[in-house]
Amino acid sequence: MNYKLSPSELTYLFEGCKFCFWLKVKFGIPQPSMPMPGIFSAIAARQKEFYANKRTKDFAKELPDGIVRYGEQPVQSKVLKFDGLKSDCHIRGRFDFVIQFDDASYGVIDCKTASPSNEKTEMYARQLQAYVFALENPEVDALHLSPISKLGLIFFEPTSFEQASLERQFFQGKPVWIEVARDDQRFMEFLKEVMSVIDQDQAPEPAPNCDWCRYRTKMKNFSFEKVQAQKGQTIQSQNTPTESPLCPRCSGSMALRNGKFGEFWSCQKYPECKGTRNPGK
What ranges do the domains of the chain cover? Predict the structure, then answer.
């Protein structure tokens, strides 16, 4: 079986919960998505516009001379096979931008709206290495760029909020360039570890701090009947009848509901049937 590995999923998803990673890659079952705040999407879009076709000397003096040649393009690698494993994989994703240096080599760069740290750099290095492998070892007709001589991250953390005029306000912050050392051997060892998890027929243990796995475990014992019973006990303690009367329209069961004028009995077939009763009647 061949599996798709997304560069972004090799970072916090794999490290955060191998059970959730296994479900996503092997069965296409993702964690429930949390919408990204619009401000981050807006910052990312403006960054890509800013860096497009810029010379490196205009934004990062640490980089060799070159120009931002490719922005946010898809990549796909050839198939990867590993000794001792029955499954194989390919890498497919989309990078932020690639620099073409004047010496004809390339640099793969990712932008992060965050404060820089060693932990984040170590984690995002996997993502960059995945892009490198896909670009230098592409599937037929996929983007091919080689050799890649530089990997790095540009961190941007807004540190102040300024007002230029009544009509214009803006965030300010210092972009920080962090170079990532290329280590192909270590990356391939990491990929084999990833594939050994995917290769398992039995699911890995959920991470103890995974919120989604904790929620899933709680929901295993969830029962609407139990919840209704608990609500019935609450109603009884308030001296409200718990036996459902019959609907005056269709003679079906009724449910106790809350309206703007207090509790009332409503037909369980609502909205098909709009029968109601007052409590105690």
Answer: 2-217, 236-277
User: Is the Cα torsion angle 56, 57, 61, 63 positive or negative in sign?
Assistant: positive
Over residues 187-242, the pLDDT tens digits come to: 999 999 999 999 998 999 999 999 999 888 888 777 666 666 666 654 444 444 45
Q: Which of 54, 61, 95, 103 is nearest to 76 (CA)?
A: 95
Question: Interhelix angle for 18-27 vs 211-220, to 10°?
Answer: 80
Contacts of 142 (CB under 8 A, 6+ apart): 74, 75, 76, 77, 134
Q: Which residues pair with 165 in a beta bridge?
A: 168
CA dist., res. 266 & res. 274, Å (int): 7
Closest CA to 113 of 176, 157, 71: 157
The residue behind tokens 């760029």 is 145
Query: What is the third-level CATH fold of 2-217?
Result: Lambda Exonuclease; Chain A (3.90.320)
Say whether pTM exceeds 0.90.
Answer: no
155-168 residue pLDDT tens: 999 899 999 999 99
